[in-house]
Amino acid sequence: MKDIIRIIRPQQWVKNMFVFIPLFFGGSLFDLSDWLASAVAFVEFSLAASAVYCLNDIVDVEADRRHPTKCLRPIAAGKVSVRHATVLAVVLAVLSVASSAVVPGGLLPWVVVSYLAMNAAYCLSLKDYAIVDVCIVSAGFVLRVVAGGVSTDIALSRWIVMMTFLLTLFLSFAKRRDDVLIMNDTGVAPRRNTSRYNLTFINQAITITGSVMLVCYIMYTVSPEVIGRFRSPNLYMTSFFVILGLLRYVQLTVVDSRSGDPTRLVLSDRFLQLVVAGWLLAFATIIYLR
């Protein structure tokens, strides 16, 4: 059972918190029905994500055995058979789609199916293509936000969709940097497409995506549309926390080379946690306690 839990990676379910983004930005933080709908979407995407993790470990079993840390994964280590992992992946995928059918509106199942299909293509082929791989990862987070919007019937701002894509693209490039460092140290590429990346390209990609995301966020906070919706011109002040968060993440990535697992990094770095908490508090105060 312990190895099964390791395969489905429940610690990674924190990524599915993106389904709650429309709830927060849509001003429905105190709407119980929207909370329940978002919680259902969270469970569905957690099941779908775990199904994808199983498939990924099955496809990558040989590559994982050559990786310094991924070789400890249950399938790569021979603790769980490929057959059992396949059954588990199918069960989780079916449960995620079936459970999504209970959400009013009937659109959420198609979001989940799209997520599963896109990530299946990623695991089987598309992850071998540099740049395409990180774009698909980012698109998966956009689908999480879309699921949150569809399940609560909250209209998504184009700013939210764009910032979600840019933020996760930034994090994905930072994660790929860890693979490049491993390749440079060992001479073995952890992924088939790692040879199409190098530190110069990765560092520039991180800089570009981080900079564009910051500009996009500032434009969002000062746009007439957003100021009118929240009836406050003070959202721009939350940019302070965004700048601090980006700089800290770049520091941890470039100086400390700790970008291999973004989820673990955020959950273990106190500075980042304080920045995120400060941003949440400042944003919530401006839009909910005006």
Could you explain the architecture of this structure?
With 290 residues, the chain is mostly helical. 71% of the residues lie in helices and 0% in strands. The chain has 13 helices and no strands. It has helices spanning 2-8, 21-25, 32-59, 61-65, 82-100, 108-124, 132-152, 158-186, 199-222, 224-230, 239-255, 262-268, 270-288. The longest helix has 29 residues, at 158-186. The radius of gyration is 19 Å and the shape is globular. The model has no long low-confidence stretch (mean pLDDT 88).
- The total count of strands amounts to 0
Number of helices: 13
Please mark out the parts with pLDDT under 50 across 5 or more consecutive residues, or reply none. none
- Determine the strand fraction and express it as a percent band: under 5%
Order of helices and strands: HHHHHHHHHHHHH
Using only CA atoms, what is the Rg?
19 Å
| Inertia-based shape | globular
Q: Would you summarize the structure shown here?
A:
The chain has 290 residues and is mainly α. It has helices spanning 2-8, 21-25, 32-59, 61-65, 82-100, 108-124, 132-152, 158-186, 199-222, 224-230, 239-255, 262-268, 270-288.
List the helices and strands and how they pair.
Layout: H1 2-8, H2 21-25, H3 32-59, H4 61-65, H5 82-100, H6 108-124, H7 132-152, H8 158-186, H9 199-222, H10 224-230, H11 239-255, H12 262-268, H13 270-288
Q: What are the defining features of this structure?
A:
mainly alpha, 290 residues, globular
